[in-house]
Amino acid sequence: MADNDVTVANMALTLLGQQSIADLDDETDHARTMKRLYTMCLDAALRNHNWNFAQVRASLARHSAAPTWEFSYQYVLPTDPYCLRVLETNLNDDEAWRIETYKTGSEQSRVIVTDFSSIKILYVARLTDPVLWDSLFADAMAWEMAFRASYAITASPQVTANLQKEKEVAWQRARSKDAQESRARKTILSESFTSVR
Questions:
Q1: Which domain holds residue 26?
Q2: Which of 39, 76, 177, 194 has the smallest number of CB atoms closer than 10 Å to its CB?
């Protein structure tokens, strides 16, 4: 388990054979490179898989303004923790919805528009605290950052190529273990269907 963002950055720098940094705000080239990559790498990694540790359930608040056209309601997506990807809703399969941005004046929010009168979601959240991450995710995140920073830091195409293979293995291992930690509910067949059989 990683303690904080600096730990993850230092894991990446270690993989590159570089000295550690004390803080992402250090006035060094390595710190600036890690800081520049960190949030982008994290968001991409969290959006790329349905990580169990990053899933959050929420009931959404209806926005006071209705969509301008097509849908009846809009609901504000969570910002704490920030919603990166909606996985499920309580809406029926035939109920339309879409994620959009609502903007008026200085107000700007990401919303779900729909005709449904209430909505709950399961979503992948931007969990910035590495203490909450699965340890294999933290390891893969370090490999990812090392790969993305490798050419800027080492100027070696070979190092970059080697890290690409290693980070893919790390992500595969993390996704595989994560997938073993959940099970979907079984769908129960209706009586009418089973009685026909």
A1: 5-51+134-179
A2: 194
